[in-house]
């Protein structure tokens, strides 16, 4: 089986689904190299290289560069979805969702409900997120908690190339608005990805690693942080399970409850800020449903309650690290 | 002179490069008899247990539970009481030096390769001594060549072996056509006969048994022996629910519940086995291909294939192996077993005795092949 990058896996999914379904269209900033400029078309393959080749394969009617106007083009995408197209709209940095939040939160998320089930909104909004690229507070946030909070949205956060392709294909085929979050620092990571198409259901967590002393729940890039921590812990005789929910909405509560009841010690690691975050949300669920099985408090390893710093050393201190996870694990395994 | 014996990570499966120790069944200082189960190791399929190669005392555990180490790495030391700690330390040190020197593990890791057949390609894994005769492993419904994880390496020690991914499974492309069993047999014949000119000793599991019978009917003079593990096609009864539930399960928990029915001891199933099966089942076209095979295996009134007559007509050795706790294809009645077949029942094994009781199955295969003579 071929090894492909996260970026290539997404590109695979976009190519194959656009070929299979003529209703799929794409829109976003710089997807095709800048429609208003005199430059080379598709020079970069999109701002992060994910959309390479799509303009040539499917033409400018289906792959559209937009002006810097999130409110307009996300609104247009929501409307296109209502009329029967299956749009994939890109928000270059998820932080820019602030500009179009009404279109996402009050429009797309509510259409099915407010139109009595007679409207469907098969919209995918792809966005990059996450720290590590020295891009500052307005280009680095992890806002999945905000989208998870809104009923009517599905929120998908792949952690590896295999999941990226399967989850994106599922997202495009899903009839509801899906926020598909791609961590910038994962694009170059590599893994085995089948050439054939496949979908991964939403609300289906992956058990990344089986262990018996503690379970580490992690999303997105934090899965590889958890894997690094688990390897160090194994060398010290502590055996950690790792579970990746893959989608925070819908959330695979059954798997999270099952592993918590089996193991009794939980650490949740999330790059989002701590207040009202996904880590706190999962923690409350487990504390309620697994109280008698828990042998220690649930530990949350998150970023601090600050904007993401621009200074490289401060950005590195901001993001949860394997050491922070190890420290949290050790604080509860001796109890 | 003290006897010091190494307990090392075994090589199970041609592509296995490392194993994870899940449990030491004896503590340090405990006494050990040769053949006693001492160490539980997790593979990509099931957890399996390593037996002690010598008697003595488990003097030292070198690799703790939860550790993953390369094949051949020293996990522990068995020695008799007369060995001094200094001798044990020196022994452990000599192992560290050996691994560090970059010496290849015995056999290295074979890699699977694809062979062109009409309509696509067949993936196969070859291992063992060069020879015109081969042992050909055919897995069952929904499986792949790694079914033979604990069997192919053992047979490869003395024979040339080939394990295939059946069409529509693993990395082999699916067949099209209304007679699924024949189409699959044709594809395998096309892939294998050019590369093996001598006798073909068939080892097949479950649905693979029907393919083996079809091959034996097509090429009677080429077949050296048949060892069939819980094959379909001998009795009317089987758990058709297993087939439909396997195809229907799209998520980890329901699929794990289905896979547990395959084993007498469900705790042997590893997370990797479930995840690997899920990844296979998700691929486009797999559900359709599996449904076509399921329809060929059983209908509302029971099994559709019938291999008894084909087996009875064979003059080569035929062995049937069954776990007595098989929930999928139950042990056939006396009258359903061909008179010329040797029947081996394995206690406390389910539908996958080649994994749950690998040593017994391997011995039965070797014995059957030996009966074929030259």
Automatic annotation (TrEMBL), chain A:
Keywords: Oxidoreductase
Keyword Oxidoreductase in annotation: yes
Location of the Transketolase-like pyrimidine-binding domain: 4-189
Gene Ontology MF, one: oxidoreductase activity
InterPro entries, per the entry: THDP-binding, Transketo_C/PFOR_II, Transketolase-like_Pyr-bd, Transketolase_C
Domain of life, source organism: Bacteria
UniProt xrefs under PANTHER family: ACETOIN:2,6-DICHLOROPHENOLINDOPHENOL OXIDOREDUCTASE SUBUNIT BETA (PTHR43257:SF3), PYRUVATE DEHYDROGENASE E1 COMPONENT BETA SUBUNIT (PTHR43257)
NCBIfam families noted in UniProt: PRK09212.1 (NF006667)
Protein name (record): Alpha-ketoacid dehydrogenase subunit beta
Organism: Rhizobium chutanense
């Amino acid at each position: 089986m071929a090894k492909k990058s996260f970026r290539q896996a997404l590109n695979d999914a976009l190519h194959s689904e656009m070929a299979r379904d003529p209703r799929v269209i794409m829109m976003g900033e710089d997807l095709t190299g800048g429609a208003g400029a005199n430059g080379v078309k598709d020079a970069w393959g999109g701002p992060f290289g994910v959309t390479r080749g799509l303009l040539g394969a499917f033409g400018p009617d289906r792959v559209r560069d937009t002006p810097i106007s999130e409110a307009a083009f996300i609104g247009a995408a929501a409307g296109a979805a209502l009329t029967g197209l299956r749009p994939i709209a890109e928000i270059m940095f998820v932080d820019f969702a602030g500009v179009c939040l009404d279109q996402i939160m009050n429009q797309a998320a509510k259409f099915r409900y407010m139109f009595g089930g007679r409207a469907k909104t098969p919209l995918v909004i792809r966005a990059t997120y996450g720290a590590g690229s020295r891009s500052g507070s307005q280009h680095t946030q992890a806002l999945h908690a905000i989208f998870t909070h809104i009923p009517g949205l599905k929120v998908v956060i792949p952690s590896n190339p295999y999941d990226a392709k399967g989850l994106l294909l599922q997202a495009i085929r899903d009839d509801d608005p899906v926020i598909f979050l791609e961590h910038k620092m994962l694009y170059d990571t590599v893994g085995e990805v089948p050439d054939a198409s496949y979908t991964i259901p939403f609300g289906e967590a992956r058990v990344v690693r089986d262990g018996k002393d503690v379970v580490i729940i992690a999303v997105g890039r934090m899965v590889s942080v958890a894997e690094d921590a688990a390897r160090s812990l194994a060398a010290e005789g502590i055996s950690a399970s790792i579970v990746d929910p893959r989608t925070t909405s819908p959330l695979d509560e059954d798997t999270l409850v099952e592993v918590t009841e089996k193991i009794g010690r939980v650490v949740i690691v999330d790059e989002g800020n701590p207040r009202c975050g996904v880590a706190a949300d999962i923690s409350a669920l487990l504390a309620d449903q697994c109280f008698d099985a828990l042998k220690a408090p649930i530990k949350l390893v998150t970023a601090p309650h600050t904007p993401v710093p621009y200074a490289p050393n401060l950005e590195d201190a901001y993001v949860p690290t394997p050491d922070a996870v190890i420290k949290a694990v050790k604080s509860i395994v001796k109890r | 002179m003290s006897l010091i014996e190494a307990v090392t990570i075994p090589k199970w499966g041609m592509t296995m490069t490392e194993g994870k120790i899940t449990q030491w069944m004896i503590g340090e200082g405990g006494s050990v008899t040769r053949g006693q189960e001492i160490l539980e190791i997790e593979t990509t399929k099931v957890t399996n247990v390593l037996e002690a190669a010598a008697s003595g005392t488990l003097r030292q555990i070198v690799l703790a539970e939860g550790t993953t180490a390369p094949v051949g790495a020293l996990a522990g030391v068995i020695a008799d009481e007369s060995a001094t700690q200094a001798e044990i330390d020196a022994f452990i040190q000599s192992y560290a030096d050996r691994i560090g020197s970059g010496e290849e593990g015995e056999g290295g890791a074979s890699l699977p390769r694809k062979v062109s057949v009409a309509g696509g390609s067949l993936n196969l894994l070859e291992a063992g001594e060069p020879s015109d005769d081969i042992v050909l492993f055919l897995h069952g419904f929904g499986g792949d060549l790694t079914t033979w994880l604990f069997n192919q390496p053992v047979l490869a020690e003395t024979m040339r072996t080939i394990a295939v991914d059946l069409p529509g499974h693993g990395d082999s492309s699916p067949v099209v056509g209304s007679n699924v069993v024949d189409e699959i047999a044709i594809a395998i014949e096309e892939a294998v006969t050019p590369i093996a000119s001598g006798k073909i000793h068939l080892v097949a599991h479950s649905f693979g048994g029907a393919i083996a019978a079809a091959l034996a009917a097509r090429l009677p003079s080429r077949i050296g022996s048949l060892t069939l593990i819980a094959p379909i096609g001998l009795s009317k009864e089987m758990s058709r629910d297993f087939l439909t539930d396997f195809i229907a399960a799209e998520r980890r928990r329901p699929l794990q519940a289905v896979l547990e029915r395959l084993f007498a001891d469900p705790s042997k199933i590893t997370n990797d086995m479930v995840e690997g099966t899920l990844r296979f089942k998700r691929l486009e076209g797999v559900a359709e291909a599996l449904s076509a095979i399921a329809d060929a295996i059983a209908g509302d009134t029971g099994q559709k294939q019938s291999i008894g007559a084909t087996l009875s007509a064979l003059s080569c050795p035929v062995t049937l192996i069954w776990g007595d706790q098989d929930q999928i294809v139950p042990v056939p009645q006396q009258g359903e077993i061909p008179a010329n077949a040797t029947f081996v029942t394995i206690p406390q094994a389910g539908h996958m005795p080649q994994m749950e009781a690998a040593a017994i199955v391997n011995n039965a295969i070797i014995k059957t092949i030996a009966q074929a003579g030259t």
